[in-house]
Amino acid sequence: LLILFVNDSSAPAWQGFFYTALLFICTCVQSLILQRYFHVCFVSGMRLRTAIIGAVYRKALVISNAARRTSTVGEIVNLMSVDAQRFMDLVTYINMVWSAPLQVVLALYFLWQMKSKDSRIKLMNEMLNGIKVLKLYAWELAFKEKVSEIREHELRELKRAAYLGAMSTFTWVCAPILVALSTFAVYVLIDEQNVLDAQKAFVSLALFNILRFPLNMLPMVISSIVQGSVAYVPQQAWIQNSTLKENIMFGQERREDWYDHVVKACALQPDLEILPAGDETEIGEKVWTEAPDMFCDKGVNLSGGQKQRVSLARAVYCDRAVYLLDDPLSAVDAHVGKHIFDQVIGPQGILKDKVGEPT
């Protein structure tokens, strides 16, 4: 309305002052509302942070000796400082989950020029609703020209939007070139002794191209690093019809020292000594053959405890960050279970630094 007033020279002056006053009042009200909103959010977040710190502190005073061995002082301090602060920050900006998409949608809606589209759709609806009248009075050509005129105006708007999109894409693609040009310009202008020759230019461009790849890949790498790769050991172990070594490595890269360490920790070394070809022995399940219509053995059959240890060794060899263990010691003997607990699962085992979750 304010822009329309400026463009209309015949409009009364009081309208301009009125629209300006409304704009000023709207800005003031927005500032007051936002101040109140952030005040409530900060107070609520501070109360939540205080409650979490108090709860953790009270729990730390009455924690048992067994739990104290698993929860260090550093972890407790981290809970009261870092994690509690994250909850406070979350309360402040939690409403952005729904308000940010709403603001974006409303902004795009108000920015989108819907006038031509609305006119064409309205006219088409009128034509379809009164199609009998159009046919009886032979008004098809007249309405066709009217629709075509509005459509041409809409196409011009779409073409302009396409040109703007092309310019935006062109600017994005040319950003590396513009960075290089600006760098060379600054290098030449800051000092008269700086001479840009072919050697410096080509070497700099080559270095710029080298720099682009790590800068583009660094966010992706960081995102991949922070993501709680998981290994799962089911209660009912399964094996493939392949060699024992391939069942343990399971497509992972070949690391002989790590493989030997995993085999010994999972108590598979005695089994390798009695197998015909060691870890190259083909193991498998009973498979159905169509010719004799019966089950037959393919490879050496393992006992339940041996399968369970192979399954555990496969998960340990993958070297994941989180391990889900579904009673991995259920099918093994007592002394073997103690060996696996000491060498793999226990506080001195291979998985001592991993995150474990019993299922």
TrEMBL record:
Top-level lineage group: Eukaryota
InterPro entries: ABC1_TM_dom, ABC1_TM_sf, ABC_transporter-like_ATP-bd, ABC_transporter_C-like, P-loop_NTPase
Record bears the keyword Membrane: yes
TM ranges: 16-34, 87-112, 161-190
CDD domains documented for this protein: ABC_6TM_MRP1_2_3_6_D1_like (cd18595)
Claim: Lipid metabolism is one of the keywords in the record: no
Residue ranges of domain ABC transmembrane type-1 in the record: 1-227
Keyword line: ATP-binding, Membrane, Nucleotide-binding, Transmembrane, Transmembrane helix, Transport
Family annotation (PANTHER family): ATP-BINDING CASSETTE SUB-FAMILY C, MULTIDRUG RESISTANCE-ASSOCIATED PROTEIN 1
Protein's name according to its UniProt entry: ABC transmembrane type-1 domain-containing protein
Species whose genome carries this gene: Goodea atripinnis
